């Protein structure tokens, strides 16, 4: 069904829910796209689990440092910029992301809810102390080689990436804020996510059930066919700027 851009201009509380697809046009690989997706090329059981880290911390730390270096080299794209601008156009906007990059922040978005943690927020595997300031990228980080994780200043345990791995709980406060916003919004834009990783994948459905309109922006059209659910097929960096210029013309 066609989404009328005026519905965006009239919305009071917009939730923008993003996945890896929003950063794809910045050159950051998604997880499940054929050929280019990280989980098409790497084994998530090894690289995204606490067991994998315990087995070979240097392999895992080196892989995440390579991804962190890729993000440091990347720039926000027109989709990130359009979302930051949208926040200045509507009465209330809540930005929920599954991404572990900081491209939304670097585009000018504030108070971003990171459901899956952040690559630049390491913490100690042993005592859970977090290292708040981003660590300097070590020599060779871009090569994806093995790098021994730095040690915790408090207990000398190994630092681990500050991301949520399979089998781990999502940060409680981020999760409850996200579900509350989804239940309270009147429009939710779901941008660049395959919608398969739980519990994040429940968020568009929570908004729909609470009476909001839900718009999926993705080159792969999706949606359940609900009367208040829409799909705009295309790349986020093209669709979002166009949607904004039509809504606020
Ligand atoms: P996926 O890789 O599963 O899905 C990316 C989605 O983006 C797909 O539906 C693509 O069709 C779409 N896409 C690709 N290019 C796009 C573009 N230019 N514009 C818009 N959409 C585009 O990524 P996520 O749904 O984010 O978890 O994956 C969810 C979680 O799975 C991630 O947060 C990660 C992963 O395991 C953790 O890191 C904990």
From TrEMBL:
Q: How is the cofactor bound?
A: Binds 1 zinc ion per subunit.
Query: Where are the annotated coiled coils located?
Result: none
Cofactors, names only: Zn(2+)
Q: Has the keyword Cytoplasm been applied to this entry? A: yes
Q: Which residues bind NAD(+)?
A: 98-101, 192-194, 218-220, 236
Keywords per UniProt: Cytoplasm, Hydrolase, Metal-binding, NAD, Transferase, Zinc
Record Pfam families: SIR2 (PF02146)
Determine if Cytoplasm is one of this entry's keywords. yes
Question: Which residues does the annotation say bind substrate?
Answer: 64, 67
- Cellular component per GO? cytoplasm
Q: Where is the Deacetylase sirtuin-type domain?
A: 1-249
| Gene Ontology terms for molecular function | histone deacetylase activity, NAD-dependent; NAD+ binding; protein-malonyllysine demalonylase activity; protein-succinyllysine desuccinylase activity; zinc ion binding
Give the E.C. number(s).
2.3.1.286
Q: Which residues form the active site?
A: 116 (proton acceptor)
What chemistry does it catalyse, as a reaction equation? N(6)-acetyl-L-lysyl-[protein] + NAD(+) + H2O = 2''-O-acetyl-ADP-D-ribose + nicotinamide + L-lysyl-[protein]; N(6)-succinyl-L-lysyl-[protein] + NAD(+) + H2O = 2''-O-succinyl-ADP-D-ribose + nicotinamide + L-lysyl-[protein]
Summarize where Zn(2+) binds, as residue positions. Answer: 124, 127, 152, 155
Give its localization.
Cytoplasm
Entry's HAMAP family?
Answer: Sirtuin_ClassIII
Q: Which family does it belong to?
A: Belongs to the sirtuin family. Class III subfamily.
| Domain notes for this protein | 2 residues (Tyr-64 and Arg-67) present in a large hydrophobic pocket are probably involved in substrate specificity. They are important for desuccinylation activity, but dispensable for deacetylation activity.
User: What's the stated role of this polypeptide?
Assistant: NAD-dependent lysine deacetylase and desuccinylase that specifically removes acetyl and succinyl groups on target proteins. Modulates the activities of several proteins which are inactive in their acylated form.
Q: What is this protein called?
A: NAD-dependent protein deacylase
């Amino acid at each position: 069904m066609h989404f009328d851009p005026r519905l965006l201009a009239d919305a009071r509380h917009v939730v923008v829910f993003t996945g890896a697809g929003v950063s794809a046009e910045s050159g950051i690989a998604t997880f499940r796209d054929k050929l280019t997706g990280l989980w098409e090329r790497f084994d998530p059981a090894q690289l995204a689990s606490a067991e994998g880290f315990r087995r070979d911390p240097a392999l895992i730390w080196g892989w995440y440092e390579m991804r962190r270096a890729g993000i440091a080299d990347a720039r926000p794209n027109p989709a990130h910029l359009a979302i930051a601008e949208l926040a200045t156009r509507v009465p209330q906007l809540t930005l929920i992301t599954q991404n572990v990059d900081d491209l939304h922040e670097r585009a000018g978005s504030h108070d971003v809810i990171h459901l899956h943690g952040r690559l630049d927020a390491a913490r100690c595997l042993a005592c859970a102390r977090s290292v708040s300031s981003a660590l300097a990228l070590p020599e060779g980080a871009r090569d994806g080689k093995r790098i021994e994780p730095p040690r915790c200043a408090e207990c000398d345990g190994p630092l681990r990436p500050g991301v949520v791995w399979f089998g781990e709980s999502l940060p409680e406060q981020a999760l409850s804020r996200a579900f509350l916003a989804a239940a309270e919004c009147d429009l939710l834009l779901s941008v660049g996510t395959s919608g398969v990783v739980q519990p994040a994948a429940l968020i568009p459905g929570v908004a729909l059930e609470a009476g909001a309109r839900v718009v999926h922006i993705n080159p792969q059209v999706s949606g359940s066919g609900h009367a208040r659910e829409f799909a705009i097929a295309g790349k986020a960096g093209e669709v979002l700027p166009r949607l904004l210029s039509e809504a606020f013309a």
